[in-house]
């Protein structure tokens, strides 16, 4: 199979920077929770991509490929710099009692729309996301915030689509529980 | 399919993802209409998705973009 030459790949990466740079940076920022680490992760991903011409030859989608490299770099950087050390152990891909317990969290108190969709709730969401495991955060960010399909997320993270859905469900349950506490604080009984 | 609350909770993500067949979807929709706690879970998931959709995506700072452009030259 023939692929792009080194110069063609460089041009592809420049185009990808224009088209996907913001998405990649946002993903790195949500993973690392640190603007400097996020910048390093994305820069290292692009330079690594430039060196991995052979690896790209088998890829159909440069955005998926770059997200995969950014994810790997972000995890490496947060490990190296002790940002999240030790990294929380990832739970396996099967449902368990903890998932059932979270599913029984009381429903959100229904705040008025201006609170539900307001900036305070969005800040609470960003804060709650920091409490997910890195894998849950990656799955949730790519699927819910970036709008990737489950198959694309699976491809980025090297997981089966069914496993992505398990981590996505678990992330949703955790965020719902965390935001439930937020709404309790802002909605009068 | 078994459609008790525990099982359904786990399938809500499959439902939202379009990963279920027609009969499973119909059974879940029926349960959601009849079970307040599962209905609440579903509604909270819907609101969570909307919150995410409406959240502002951070933009790459210009200085970072310039650094990457330099590195690619």
Jot down its keywords.
heterodimer; A: 189 residues; mainly alpha; 71% helix; 0% strand; B: 73 residues; 4 helices
Mind explaining what this structure looks like?
The complex is a heterodimer of chains A (189) and B (73). Chain A is mainly α and 189 residues long. Chain A is 71% helix and 0% strand. Chain A contains 10 helices and no strands. Chain B has 73 residues and is mostly helical. Chain B is 75% helix and 0% strand. Chain B has 4 helices and no strands. The radius of gyration of chain B is 20 Å and the shape is elongated. The mean pLDDT of chain B is 86. At the A-B interface, α1, α2, α5, α7 and α8 of A face α1, α3 and α4 of B.
How are the SSEs ordered, and which strands pair?
The complex is a heterodimer of chains A (189) and B (73).
Chain A: H1 6-32, H2 35-51, H3 53-56, H4 62-80, H5 97-103, H6 113-116, H7 119-129, H8 134-145, H9 150-157, H10 161-186
Helix pairs in contact in A: 1-2, 1-4, 2-4, 4-9, 7-10, 8-10, 9-10
Chain B: H1 5-16, H2 22-34, H3 36-54, H4 62-72
Helix pairs in contact in B: 1-3, 2-3
Largest interface by Cβ-Cβ < 8 Å: A-B, 44 and 37 residues
Shape descriptor of chain B reads: elongated
Low-confidence segments of chain B:
none
Q: What fraction of residues of chain A sit in β-strands?
A: under 5%
User: What would the average pLDDT of chain B be, to the nearest integer?
Assistant: 86
Q: Given the structure, what is the number of helices of chain A?
A: 10
**How many beta-strand elements of chain B?**
0
Assembly of the depicted chains: heterodimer
Structural class of chain B: mainly alpha
Counted by DSSP, the helix tally of chain B is 4
Distance between the termini of chain A: 65 Å
Fraction of residues in β-strands of chain B: under 5%
Rg of chain A computed from alpha carbons, rounded to a whole number of angstroms: 18 Å
Mean pLDDT of chain A: 84
Biggest sheet of chain A: strands, sense, closure? none
Q: How would you sum up the global shape of chain A?
A: elongated
């Amino acid at each position: 199979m023939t692929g792009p030459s080194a110069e063609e790949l460089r041009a592809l990466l420049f185009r990808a920077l224009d088209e996907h740079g913001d998405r990649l940076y946002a993903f790195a920022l949500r993973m690392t929770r640190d603007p400097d680490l996020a910048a390093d992760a994305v820069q290292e991903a692009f330079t690594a991509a430039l060196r991995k011409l052979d690896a790209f030859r088998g890829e159909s989608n440069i955005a998926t490929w770059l997200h995969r490299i950014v994810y790997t770099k972000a995890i490496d950087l947060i490990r190296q710099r002790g940002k999240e050390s030790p990294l929380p152990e990832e739970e396996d891909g099967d449902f368990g009692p903890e998932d059932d317990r979270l599913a029984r969290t009381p429903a959100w108190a229904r705040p008025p729309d201006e609170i539900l969709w307001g900036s305070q709730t969005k800040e609470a969401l960003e804060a709650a996301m920091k409490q997910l495991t890195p894998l849950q955060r990656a799955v949730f960010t790519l699927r819910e915030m970036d709008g990737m399909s489950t198959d694309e997320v699976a491809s980025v993270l090297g997981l089966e689509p069914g496993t992505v859905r398990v981590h996505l469900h678990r992330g949703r349950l955790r965020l719902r529980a965390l935001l439930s506490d937020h709404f309790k604080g802002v909605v009068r009984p | 399919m078994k459609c008790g609350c525990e099982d359904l909770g786990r399938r809500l993500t499959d439902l939202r993802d379009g990963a279920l067949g027609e009969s499973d979807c119909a059974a879940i929709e029926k349960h959601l209409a009849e079970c307040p706690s599962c209905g609440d879970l579903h509604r909270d998931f819907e609101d969570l998705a909307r919150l995410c959709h409406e959240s502002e995506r951070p933009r790459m700072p210009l200085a970072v973009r310039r650094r990457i452009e330099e590195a690619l030259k």
